[in-house]
Design goal:
Strand order of the largest sheet of chain B: 6-7-8-3-9-10
Structural class of chain B: alpha/beta
Radius of gyration of chain B: 19 Å
Order of helices and strands of chain A: HHHHHHHHHHH
Largest interface: A-B, 23 and 27 residues
Strand content of chain A: under 5%
Distance between the termini of chain B: 40 Å
Number of helices of chain B: 12
Order of helices and strands of chain B: EEEHEEHEHHHEHEHEEHHEHHEH
Number of helices of chain A: 11
Low-confidence stretches of chain A: none
Low-confidence stretches of chain B: 240-305
Number of strands of chain A: 0
Oligomer: heterodimer
Largest sheet of chain B: 6 strands, mixed
Number of strands of chain B: 12
Helix content of chain B: 25-40%
Shape of chain A: globular
Amino acid sequence: MLEHAFMQRALVAALGIGVVCGALGFFVVLRRLAFVGVGISHAAVGGVALGLLLGLPPLAVGGAFGVAVALGIATVSRKSRLGQDTVIGVFFSGALALGLALASAGRGGQQDLFAYLFGNVLAIGPRELLALAGLATLVIGGLATTFRAQLFLAFDEELARAYGHRVGALDALLLVLLALTVVIGVRLVGALLVEALLVVPAATAALWATHYRGQLALSIGLGAASGALGLALAWQLDLAVGASIALVAVVGFFASLAWRRR
Amino acid sequence: MSAPVVHIAGATVHRDGRLVLEGIGFEVAPGAFLGICGPNGAGKTTLLQAILGLVPLAAGRIDVLGRPAAERARSGNGIGYVPQRHAFPPDFPAHALDVVRLGRLHQREGRVRERHAAEEALARVGIAELASRPVGRLSGGEQRRVTLAQALCASSKLLILDEPTVGLDLPAEQEFYALVRRLQGELGLAVIAVSHDLVALAGEADHLVCINRRMHVHGQPDDVIHSHALREAYSCEFDFLAGEIAHHEGHAREHPARATRADDSSALVPRSEPQASEGEARATRADDASALVPRSEAEPSEGGA
């Protein structure tokens, strides 16, 4: 299958999204941010719809929506007395509704929007691959430079604050990195399934490893493996790639769960 | 005389439009142990947060190691802090050594030195052998020591303890305070501890401050405990019975300077129902007849006559 240039690009993209989601997924699982991921990915769909309507780059608008919603969630849930899950519910449905309402007002575009709901890793062009690689580097770089401070925040926010760490800024940064990751994922596996890569490899890793180094490495490895295996399976069985990648990850999770419970 | 580690003058704090602390002022000298007591809701934890630079002052100032607390907080404050403790997250994916190292993360001094400092801190609190154990699986007492090691790893000059012995049984509490006193002696640490347990605090501290929004009394533990101002702060009466201190007696022998305290120190013993909010903590100490219990607020004030 790798004789085709588009498949080579698809493999690189699938491995890349697996690595990025696996790395960020470690914190998504540790800090229980799974619902934030769902919220941001749905908000991004609203942005993509708006981009399609306005003739702007859909991913850029989707990304801007995702980041705005991430920061909105961080700010409002810190400053109001509402639970974070409640704030997410308000923001993501609002952003999604706005995007869809605007898109329905325009003509056409629904077909294109479909591609962002389910992703299309096979259609990645060389320039787009480069842009996604740039985003991925940004996410990994942001995570690497603040990794242990983020770990401290996950361990005990009060202690992290007492020792001079800027808890609010770290929190917002993590959500922005999450939004950027979602944008990459939306293009490749679709808004509906990016959550699978954000949560499942890290959850599987947490079943096997008890130390963060092991969990992180395993989560990244499982993410990349799900990407590559899912792509190969989709090619062989003529399946939707996003769904195939998500299924591989989920099967890995349940197999691990069964094995660990024996 | 060397400069104070903590200097507080006229510190006033508002929270949610409410006056929480008003005109607090005291100093902590290097190597001194200051106990802060006061009833529930008196602003004790807020005062600690102000010293850590985490809550803004409406008036007055707090200097820690010669710099304003708020400024210090922004650059990583160099204060060791043991917060009022809940258990560690049971499945947190880190070892005790990793958690202790986090206390020094803001100093950005390189991993080798950081690791060395953390190992030394674990050894000082006597749990070097637990370094590579998952933190969530340690016992309550061990977790408390990990937090103490983290605080030592962060600072060798000032330790702040917020209700450090809540949830520990009496031997574990004694052991914890003995450890703190030992570290204080070895390192010349200044210690500030908040506790609702006035008896234990009076047995350990060199000085006591009693606050209830404003500062009611500051002095030697004996003087504070027998002062009218203490009753005023708690809005109730205390009884004193001789012979408390069963559990602080050994400690007094180790610290001759405190022997006088043990001799004359009388336990604070309940006469009637404690305040509901503090009843639970008291109940655990009642067996040992060393509890401090205020008399009901409704009763006329005997000491006030």
